[in-house]
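testing teh design pipeline on a random one, pls ignore if ur not involved
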């Protein structure tokens, strides 16, 4: 399952069996719309890539969404997001290639880390700046 930052105030409090995947198929219990999940993924890492957005051409459903990403190296990918994770399904926006057998990544961070050295550098620098800021806060 993809993990994203979430504000507990945004969660409905009547979903029942939240963490229990055995109950996920029952109506009204923890059914995720993958488009919302995809939007969260995009918002999380947009700062570290050239361009990233949820596909408006490919169909989104409760169990699948597609994300277009252009790395800072100017490489384009179409990513598939499912409960299994994220994987590259094409080397261009809004495409899928059934012949591509790419591995699933549990997180968008690990997927982008494997595709883009520039992403790794930008993300690492952002992390360092955050840590420095925390260090300053704790010293004051």
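output:
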């Amino acid at each position: 399952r993809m993990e994203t930052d979430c504000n507990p105030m945004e969660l409905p409090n009547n979903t029942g069996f939240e963490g229990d995947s055995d109950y996920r198929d029952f109506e009204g219990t923890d059914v995720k719309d993958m488009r919302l999940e995809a939007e969260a993924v995009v918002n999380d890492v947009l700062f570290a890539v050239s361009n990233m957005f949820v596909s408006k051409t490919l169909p989104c459903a409760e169990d699948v969404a597609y994300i277009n990403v252009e790395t800072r190296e100017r490489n384009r990918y179409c990513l598939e997001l499912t409960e299994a994770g994220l994987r590259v399904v094409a080397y261009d926006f809004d495409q899928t290639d059934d012949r591509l057998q790419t591995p699933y990544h549990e997180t968008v961070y690990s997927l982008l880390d494997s595709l883009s050295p520039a992403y790794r550098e930008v993300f690492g620098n952002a992390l360092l700046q955050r840590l420095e800021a925390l260090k300053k806060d704790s010293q004051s």
